[in-house]
Design brief:
Order of helices and strands: HEEHEEEEHHHEHH
Helix content: 25-40%
Shape: globular
Strand order of the largest sheet: 2-4-3
Strand content: 15-25%
Length: 159
């Protein structure tokens, strides 16, 4: 669908509020996939090596021809979700987190309708709060296929 047609019909055409609180809620839950590209795996590996760790099979699994981060079989936590002594949950690779994580919550499934957005917001304290993302910013994130695609995002509104 052409951008102009999407903009005229999108329920979120006036923008949405979101600011990541790094609560970790999007990093846990039912089984799923956080797909990573070879370039992302290389970035994650370099990041971990800088901290005396390495990227291994405990972090990456093959899914057909693709790769995904692994999850704890019991909790559903992403392998990089860290639990701090004060009870917070944070991403252990936040600066190099995969594109799929960077574009949350502006995923097609969450933007399908206002109801699907509100359903996701019930588990995400950053949704409907914080900075307003305008339609263009949302669409760039929704359609991003590479990290570089996010560079096209204009500065966010401070309102």
């Amino acid at each position: 669908m052409a951008k102009a047609a999407v903009e005229k019909t999108a329920w979120y055409q006036d923008g949405l509020r979101f600011e990541c609180t790094q609560c970790g809620n999007c990093c846990t839950g039912p089984p799923g996939y956080v797909f990573v590209t070879k370039a992302e795996m290389e970035l994650i590996s370099a990041f971990l090596q800088g901290r005396g760790r390495s990227l291994g099979t405990e972090h990456i699994r093959s899914v057909g021809r693709r790769h995904s981060l692994t999850e704890d079989e019991t909790s559903g936590d992403c392998c990089f979700l860290e639990h701090t002594p004060d009870g917070k949950r944070t991403c252990g690779i936040y600066p190099v987190r995969p594109l799929q994580c960077r574009t949350w919550p502006f995923w097609d499934g969450n933007l399908e309708s206002q109801d699907t957005w509100e359903e996701a917001a019930s588990d995400c304290p950053g949704m409907n709060r914080g900075r307003r993302h305008d339609f263009v910013q949302i669409e760039i994130r929704r359609t991003a296929r590479r990290w570089e695609d996010l560079d096209a995002c204009p500065p966010r509104s401070k309102t």
